[in-house]
Amino acid sequence: MTKSAELKGGSYTLSALHLVDGDIPKAADFLKQKVDQAPHFFAAAPVVIDISQVSDTIDFEQLKHSVSEAGMIPVGISGCKAGPLQQQAKAAGFAIMNAARQAKASEPVMEPTRIIRNPVRSGQQIYAKNCDLVVMNNVSAGAEIIADGCIHIYGTLRGRAIAGANGHGEAKIFCHNLQAELVSIAGSYWLSDKIHPEFWGKNVVISLAENNLNIEQLAL
């Protein structure tokens, strides 16, 4: 008999909105700003809302509506331990998300480096699964390059570069001319306005330290 569907486990990168208080309109405004700044990255992107720091009760219906109105898709609630709150969240259509336990399985086997010689044009997306990515040309604004390992760009980066997409925090981004819309490593990201002017247009390496991005200029 032919199977009509299969249910399998999967691993996906989700953005997490951490609420520091119960001010839902303020949080929604923050999300809308992010969507407006990087619509290709955030518009209609799934988001999990962490409420572990919120001491007050939460209107989950309002929260869901406000996040949707801001341009993202609310999929779940994390940091929700109280049974009644979990029931309220479920009634509003949220999944209850738990932090992933550290896997005992071995790391994925890394594949040979993927090399792109042509320019990466606006609207293109390139993903190097289980490997490093080398781009020997420019990455245009509106383009997106993603790698589970490190990213090396031997040209100008005007689009988005996402390294360590599978959560690998040791991944790095090397770039000969940084003018990025967004850079991200293992889920931590900066939009262009977070990149200090002294590094703009320079030869840099971006790394992750204690869940914060770090940027250094490299000598040519």
TrEMBL record:
Keywords: Cell cycle, Cell division, Septation. Transmembrane segments: none annotated. The keyword Cell division applies. Residues 115-216 form the Septum formation inhibitor MinC C-terminal domain. PANTHER family: SEPTUM SITE-DETERMINING PROTEIN MINC. Belongs to the MinC family. HAMAP family: MinC (MF_00267). NCBIfam families: minC. This is Probable septum site-determining protein MinC. It comes from Photobacterium aphoticum. The gene is minC.
